[in-house]
Amino acid sequence: MTTAGLSFIIIGASVSGLASAISLKRSGHSVLILEKDAQLGGAASILNGCARVCPNGSKILLDWGLLDAETKAKAAPMPGFAFFKYNAGYSEGSEPDFLGEHRWYPELLFEARGGYMQFRHHDFMRILYDEAMRDSSSRVSVRFGAEVVKIDCEACSVTLRSGEIHTADAIIGADGARGIVRRTLMREEGVSLDRDVPIGVALYRDLCMRMISLLGFYEYDDIGSTVFDMGRSTQMRAQLIALPASFCSPFVPFAAAWIFPVGRENDLALSLYTPDATQDGTWTEEPEKNINDVIGPCDIRLKKLASLAGPTTCVQLKKPYALESWVSKSGRVVVLGEAAHPSPTGGLHPYAVALEDAVFIGKIFSHTRDRGRVPEFLYAFQEQREKRCARIREIDLEYVEACITPLGPMHDQRDAGMRANHAAGKNAMEGDFQQMLDDFGVVFGYSAADDADEWWINWGRFRNTNTENGNVEADGRLRSTSFISITTNATKTGNQ
Ligand SMILES: Cc1cc2nc3c(=O)[nH]c(=O)nc-3n(C[C@H](O)[C@H](O)[C@H](O)COP(=O)(O)OP(=O)(O)OC[C@H]3O[C@@H](n4cnc5c(N)ncnc54)[C@H](O)[C@@H]3O)c2cc1C
């Protein structure tokens, strides 16, 4: 056992890559991050981004000492949201058709130890990047414009497009759902990336800079939330959500739009879920169509925002292939974040879940400097995180599906339920969406740090003798222990 930290290569300088670097640095290891883009957060020309950080993620920022005034000043808090019909309020001066509202229960946020925050994607990257680089001249380094084109899992090395080769004790694939590490693991399992199947829904997203005033009914209250006064007796500190169209159109059989405040400069993010099987873009490329081309007949506020849309992105929602193993057969390469468990595009949870992954992996690796234990720790990461990540993915998808419920009895029942709840002074999601409300509590209340500690206390520390017992091969791979076989033989239902 050596006292020097382990060396990690992280592929991808986005949320999970930067957060994992912070976490591993805190545990005394050194990290080289390789990012293919030339700059942090992708091209500056596409300011598409809204990073929604749920309480399970913001408590991590708090624990890392990152929730200072400067950080808070970059986020719009999100105390709840309000639901409106998509196909009403067509004309200038008309009222939106209100269905009901959801406010996060204060006790839920209190117990979760975190608030709900919405940053510009670029701002959020900068916060993580600065923390990763702080006081870390030797421990963390980031190379931009460094695209990894080849991974040798056995040698634990990567080759860059430039031909350079880098080697480490472990490689972390934080390179997203279409990244090379996920593809490498899929190849090990004998499948190709086209096993991620589009479900026929695309998310268009645009960031409308300093546009809150466009809606004409906002002000800031004493906690700085955006207040949408929708012309009612009570003002709603809420984000505005327009729900699916209740009219039949051959072009837009369903659509759902979210408008939410981002950052503190009065920006509005406009997201539109729409059926679109033709565009398969990314967060960094402009699609052929603009939001304005696909929005169809809708509330005038939505229309206005869409007409002002700048560069838009369009990303398909996919049913991802569920990797049998997040860890390479060599036991030295692991995926996390989107590369391990791709989320429904634009879901509520991916940022927070990426932060959770980072905390978990950093925390468990705080207990070892032993290269021989790398495979065991990487398998433990999958074993502990996989179930939760899969469940959160389902929750995110249920949320999207609820909003894009096509016309029919379920659609009508959903709207009637929300209106009735509102009339009774209740949360719009009570009743029909009670399970979703309960799920929020479970998701927000989780602490990745506690979970990692629990793994160590219940499992990790008892395996501390693996090296001495001769359970580890010369190359660091664990011999066939019950732990390995349970993990690698786990049956996945996600791919059926
Ligand atoms: C530029 C950008 C903007 C985004 N904007 C939004 C948004 O507005 N709203 C939203 O909900 N989600 C957005 N996302 C997605 C969001 O970041 C993820 O859903 C999630 O939060 C965490 O993702 P991740 O860090 O695991 O992977 P990702 O965020 O997908 O990041 C993967 C990183 O790996 C890099 N990479 C990929 N391949 C290689 C390679 N071969 N070599 C080196 N580096 C590589 C990519 O350039 C990227 O930086 C965006 C992602 C990106 C990359």
TrEMBL record:
The keyword Oxidoreductase applies. One of its GO terms (molecular function) is monooxygenase activity. InterPro entries: FAD-bd (IPR002938), FAD-dep_Monooxygenase_BioMet (IPR050493), FAD/NAD-bd_sf (IPR036188). Keywords: FAD, Flavoprotein, Monooxygenase, Oxidoreductase, Signal. Pfam families: FAD_binding_3. Residues 1-21 form the signal peptide. Residues 9-186 form the FAD-binding domain. Belongs to the paxM FAD-dependent monooxygenase family. This is FAD-binding-3 domain-containing protein. It comes from Mycena sanguinolenta.
